[in-house]
Amino acid sequence: MVKQVAIISGGIIGATAAFYLSYLKGHESVAVTLFDEDTGQATKAASGIISPWLSKRRNKRWYALAKQGAELYQQLVNDAQLSANAYCRTGTIVTRKDHADLLDLYHEAEIKAAQTPAMGNVELLSSAEVKRRMPILTNPPEGVFVSGGARIDGQHFVAELLANAQQENLAVVNQRVSLDGSGRVLTEQGPRQFDRIIVATGAWMHETLKPLGLSLKVRPQKGQLIDLLVDMPASWDNMPVMMPESMSDIIPFNHGKLVVGATHENDGGFDLTPKEAAKNQLFENAQYFIEQLSKAQITDMRVGTRAYTDDFSPFFGILPTMPSILVGGGLGSSGLTTGPMIGYHLAQSILSSHLVDWNHYTKPIGTYIS
Ligand SMILES: Cc1cc2nc3c(=O)[nH]c(=O)nc-3n(C[C@H](O)[C@H](O)[C@H](O)COP(=O)(O)OP(=O)(O)OC[C@H]3O[C@@H](n4cnc5c(N)ncnc54)[C@H](O)[C@@H]3O)c2cc1C
């Protein structure tokens, strides 16, 4: 008999899980319905940088998830035949203000790259060499270039994954839903019973799980970024992403689009209003490196809500009190990088009885849910 599966969320976890439930071995045995309300979604607001290897974080489980997440991207792009609008391996340039710190970073990068094929080549670049790779910069810093780094457009990315899965076994329903105490999904059309449910509602997850008598420790964080449209030659397409130390990232897309972000506002909660002060701060950060920018080139401001756990770690697993429900979340500021691995593992666990040990990536979910 075909198993009925619900996914609550069309963010990066939900969309990747939906894709793999339509693609992996055994997908013929499931019919999937994805519910997504969309408001405040972090995935479509995100800057889109996939480059975890030189992070200052020292959390081993997070690093295992992020490192393998970055590797999974290349496979996922092939599996789902994603377009260059969704994913592009442009390389990333990471900077340090202090030259000695940059040399340390370069040596760390060389050691990691020798064990991590997905990182590609690592190069120490002078400011003139950075300028050659990013001709738009008028004040280029020196930096470490990692050729395996990539940028994604979160909105395109999830739309393409879902369109792919819709050709197989996925139905998408754009509405807010809730759970009742017995684990039914309450939709605008009435309650629905599913064999398995994936809940990945990001910053809204505490509210989603509440009717089950559960309390989840996640807090929302507001993130804002600006999009600019700059007149530049087609030969400048595919410039690398720049991640300057303690300043906003600059993510060049093709056809003159530049994304600058993002803010991390702990007191912003679920507020989705774009703020002038953030716009000015992001613009000034970008203008430090690209003097000729003008505010008139700002075409959009995007706002999303990230979800953080107390120990800043993502989590995923099966609810011990209701094993038909699987959860994944708490992705914080690197969720585009870690989210696809979680979506993959959740899908795999529904389709197959052969599972890898999740403790390698996450503490038991009881750490986060009480
Ligand atoms: C400004 C910004 C910049 C970022 N930049 C990067 C970056 O460069 N690199 C990186 O790796 N990460 C980045 N992140 C982090 C990353 O975007 C998030 O961690 C990740 O996208 C979270 O994915 P998610 O699937 O857990 O949640 P989300 O993407 O938030 O998706 C959750 C979805 O569930 C829906 N939902 C909630 N409740 C319900 C309900 N009851 N019924 C139906 N639907 C519901 C929401 O509307 C939403 O669509 C950034 C985040 C922000 C905000």
From TrEMBL:
UniProt entry keywords in alphabetical sequence: Flavoprotein, Oxidoreductase
InterPro entries: FAD-dep_OxRdtase, FAD/NAD-bd_sf
Family matches, as Pfam families: DAO (PF01266)
EC number: 1.4.3.19
Enzyme class: oxidoreductase
Gene Ontology, cellular component aspect: cytoplasm
GO molecular-function terms, A-Z: glycine oxidase activity
Source organism superkingdom: Bacteria
Domain FAD dependent oxidoreductase: 5-348
Cofactors that this protein relies on: FAD
Protein family: Belongs to the DadA oxidoreductase family.
The protein, known as: Glycine oxidase
